[in-house]
Write a structure and sequence with these properties.
- The chain is an alpha+beta fold.
- The chain has three domains: 119 residues, Immunoglobulin-like, CATH 2.60.40; 171 residues, no CATH class; 172 residues, Neutral Protease Domain 2 (Neutral Protease, domain 2).
- Helices cover 30% and strands 22% of the residues.
- It has eleven helices and 16 strands.
- The protein has a five-stranded mixed beta sheet, with no helix packed on it. The chain has a three-stranded antiparallel beta sheet with strand order 1-8-9, with no helix packed on it.
- A hairpin with a 5-residue loop joins strand 11 and strand 12.
- The longest helix has 30 residues.
């Protein structure tokens, strides 16, 4: 059926079935089937730990947490099926050994009516310690709303038959990304005296860094936006996996929500990159008239594979809004080429395990970029869907990533440099062209007509055979933009952001002499804004 046209972008498979010890890629037999009906929801187990401490003697503290509208528990109360069961809450509260205290749940949460969870803690300080510390673990099942459009009728199931006889099932359905953001309790804290502050924090300061925060007191008398976020559903992803650091306060309570990003580089550069690519998204939406990709995207999650060989993600993209007949590789190519980098920044934050090194992220993005652009900017293939080739490329990329990881299950006591060199050689040439093609094509869409092409021509005359690297080409592009653009300030900033993006991740830069055979003119000529 034509409306089921989809494109494989990236999947990192369990490497034990991907690369043999001698470096030979296993053969995969792929088939794609449609399973009906599509489920309305998909559930993921999660745990939130709530803890607080009080240093002043007080009889009781009421802790109130409002849960996101997308969160529902799997089990229900025996007497009221609209409310969750007590056993979903796990251990109610446990105090440390230096205090005598207890805590009980005074109100069960009900997301349907926005009823919050309330916990009342009562304690009696000892003669030597006036601090009461207590915590509770809420074992919840997060339910994602998977219904993106009423006319989507199936669950995508890609079944891979491995050479050793095992089968890998890649299951997917449509998911609104904003629901994945709400994997934590949020809202206000209702207290007696003294007041307490609720902070939602990331799993580890070594893994995540605060990107943006909003703070407001209980009387709404002040609000401090530390780093503005225009649209949290798009820009920010709150990775808070547990509640912690409830500290006493002598003033009105404060609710603070933090946004996090991976510590892959400088925070300012990261923010510039995300902000710029987000703006590019909206520009593209205006240019070609399709719905914002993050709203229409189909994201596929593959759960329950063991670390460190767990599947990180597979993505299918539908183009049925932009192209009414659902069949043109040209229109699909335009759609897909615009979504790659922002999708990676957004998606990898909740698919990567915090213990995995950045090389896994490098490999994932490299493969996503390669697969997108192989089908789009660099060819006119009328049948762009080649699952067999994609799986081979993914396997090689995965092996390269794992070979640079000390905990590599496939790596012998002596590093096999010959195998790694062969894998790198396989990847090197296509990625050089692909990254440069993407960056320069997007730059050509962003700046006044002819700016990028004239910069390349000038650059090649004085820098023959030189790579389009951050040290040379993109500063030259920025200088050229200042000369040709009527809005120098904003375009110059955009050029600097291309510069930042060109330095991000560790794959090779494009050599401009290699770029001569690839047209810089988009296959769909779009009007300049």
């Amino acid at each position: 059926m034509a409306y089921l046209t989809i494109a494989l972008v990236a999947v990192l498979l369990g490497a034990q079935h991907v690369l043999a010890a001698d470096g030979v890629i296993n053969e995969y037999n792929l088939k794609l089937t449609l399973v009906e009906p599509i489920p309305d929801t998909r559930q993921v187990a999660a745990t939130a730990t709530i803890s607080f401490q009080v240093t002043t003697a007080v009889a009781t503290i009421d802790l109130t947490l409002y849960w996101g509208s997308s969160l529902r528990t799997s089990q229900t109360n025996a007497t009221d099926p609209t409310k969750p069961s007590v056993k979903d809450l796990g251990p109610v509260m446990s105090a440390d050994s230096t205090t005598v205290g207890s805590a009980t749940i005074t109100q069960m949460p009900d997301p349907k009516t926005n009823t919050p969870l309330k916990i009342q803690a009562t304690f009696t300080p000892t003669s030597t310690d006036t601090t009461f510390k207590a915590s509770t673990t809420y074992n919840m099942v997060i339910t994602y709303n998977t219904v993106l459009r009423k006319d989507m009728k199936g669950l995508f199931l890609q079944q891979i038959n491995n050479k050793d006889g095992t089968t890998s099932n890649l299951i997917g359905t449509d998911l609104l990304p904003k629901y994945a953001r709400e994997v934590f309790p949020y809202g206000e804290v209702s207290t007696t005296t003294p007041s307490i502050t609720l902070n939602i924090v990331g799993p580890s300061s070594q893994t995540f860094t605060t990107l943006s925060s909003t703070t407001a007191d209980s009387s709404n008398s002040s609000q401090n936006i530390i780093t503005p976020i225009t649209n949290p559903d798009f820009y920010g992803f709150a990775m808070g996996s547990r509640m912690a650091h409830l500290q006493p306060s002598n003033t009105a309570y404060t609710t603070k929500l933090n946004f996090y990003f991976r510590q892959d580089g400088n925070m300012d550069i990261y923010k510039q990159r995300v902000d710029f690519l987000a703006n590019l998204y909206y520009q593209a939406e205006n240019l070609v008239g399709f719905v914002h990709p993050l709203i229409k995207l189909s994201i596929i999650l593959v759960p329950d594979l063991p670390k460190p060989t767990a599947t990180l993600g597979i993505i299918y993209i539908r183009d049925d809004d932009y192209n009414s007949d659902y069949s043109s590789p040209l229109s699909e190519g335009r759609y897909r080429s615009l979504v790659v980098p922002v999708l990676h920044e957004y998606f990898r934050q909740f698919t990567e395990f915090s213990t995995q090194p950045s090389t896994w992220g490098d490999a994932w993005l490299s493969q996503a970029m390669a697969t997108f652009l192989k089908y789009t900017l660099l060819n006119n293939n009328d049948s762009p869907f080649d699952f067999k080739t994609d799986m081979d490329v993914v396997a090689r990329q995965m092996a390269l990533a794992m070979d640079s990881t000390t905990a590599n299950a496939l790596q012998s006591s002596i590093n096999n440099t010959a195998t790694r060199a062969a894998i790198e050689a396989t990847l090197m040439d296509p990625l050089k062209n692909l990254k440069g093609a993407y960056l320069l094509t997007m730059a050509d869409l962003s700046f006044p007509a002819g700016t990028v092409l004239s910069t390349i021509q000038t650059f090649l005359k004085s820098n023959q055979q030189k790579a389009a690297s951050s040290q040379a080409f993109f500063p030259a592009l920025a200088a050229q933009v200042l000369i040709t653009s009527s809005t120098n300030a904003s375009d110059y900033t955009a050029a600097q952001n291309f510069n930042a993006w060109s330095t991000y991740m560790s794959y090779p830069q494009v050599t401009l002499s290699d770029f001569k055979s690839t047209s810089l003119v988009p296959k769909v000529i779009l009007p300049k804004t």
